[in-house]
């Protein structure tokens, strides 16, 4: 094992300038013979020195946002390259990327890099890619969530809408959002997320601003339907896009940042709403107009900022040389492929055909996570949707209500980050879902027992703590991506997960009813039953994946080494159906 920096630098010079790469330098990037050339190297067709630094001596290290220089227990100048199937000559040939893979010219299984280089590069990706994704999500949340602020600003009274009309509008939004998920993903896979996401944002911002002129129930229903159609698929599109840049270890935490941006957006929106709702007349109309305009600006900028791929950052706006050096592009591409070779299966602008779509939809091993997506948010959805109306019913003014949601939002953001980091540290997912549902149970019991004589500040505190439950959403989206194990499945699985989440939102839209106001005892009793069901579902999913892995272990261990090698080279099993794949749980 070579971990000395001087030796590594010396070998890097030999790698980049010596005869080791002569054959690769002679082929055209993206050509079929480039694939053969690159993988010929690992198969021994090219001369690799015996003292070439091979791999990190330890499994992947997990480092956190506060550790700017990486974990304290590693040698920053040591090799960070992790073991993978590309280190076996025969396996490497089987796992080689598709000839249409957009980053093929940077693929090289012999590439080595240090922890210092990798950590610096990940920070750069965070700033260049992740930060803007968070801004885009904040823009989404402005247009998706300002309906609650408009309600706090007397929109229902001004338009003479009942609570049931409001419920119907929310149900229409979620239903159309659900239906739009898969079509949006298919368009995104064809055009590329870097093109489709900005188009989505510009279109829905126009609809959002048009709500300024709302006058009728029909107009309300139409705008909710259009917003659902245009916003549907956005989150799944972004999740797929981020998977091009991050490993499976890093992605859930970045998704936690992504959903933390939702809370930041809510906080900013609260202050904006506080100011806008102080305007004269029906101020909620200006809320839609101003916040829709901000989303339009973000959408137009996104068309300029988002690169197509790790090796496609060069443009007139981003600079003719792009964001990453050639060395950084090689590290970025090879570390992602070493973590998950399936990411080289397709071009990122290659459409899915019907067979790919059908196979992905029929992947029964992902349906347990889809079921979790359906039910995990049910306990919080009705309480959160009616939070502003609940606070108004307790006697707080519209302006007080706008600001009183802030403590819950800040705490929920911190809890989201905490539980996602905990999942990364202990490599557990289902157990943390059980933890989150237990939190709901602890605070729903007093909510169910409250009476009209209960102090309003006590009710406010309990409902705020209830909604601050640690969200496992980011964990579960990363879980879905991890257990997909192919690009085609990953493209659809994120959309399917979100579809089930939206379906759960539709179901819970009618838990709180007008005849159950103001304490919603019947609705809260229903939520207690849902929480009990969720605890059983999380444990059932845990058991399912454990048993699936044990079954595969038995079959795999029954094979001798020659049979295992033969299976890898000849199997028609794909993605998570391979005997050598293990499900995360």
Would you kindly provide a written description of the structure presented here, covering whatever features stand out?
- The chain is mainly α and 585 residues long.
- Helices cover 65% and strands 0% of the residues.
- The chain contains 25 helices and no strands.
- The longest helix has 38 residues, at 115-152.
- The model is unreliable at 1-50 (pLDDT under 50).
Task: Chart the SSEs and their pairings.
Layout (H helix, E strand, L loop, with lengths): L4 H13 L4 H4 L6 H11 L46 H6 L20 H38 L2 H5 L3 H29 L1 H18 L6 H15 L2 H10 L7 H26 L7 H22 L20 H14 L14 H8 L5 H9 L5 H5 L1 H7 L4 H7 L1 H21 L3 H20 L6 H12 L5 H12 L2 H22 L12 H37 L3 H10 L15
Q: Radius of gyration over alpha carbons?
A: 26 Å
**Largest β-sheet summary:** none
Instruction: Return the structural class.
Output: mainly alpha
In round numbers, the mean pLDDT is 80
Say how many strands there are: 0
Global morphology = globular
Determine the number of helices (DSSP H or I, runs of at least 4 residues).
25
**Low-confidence region ranges:** 1-50
The helix content, as a percent range, equals 55-70%
The share of residues in extended strands comes to under 5%
Distance between the termini: 33 Å
Order of helices and strands: HHHHHHHHHHHHHHHHHHHHHHHHH
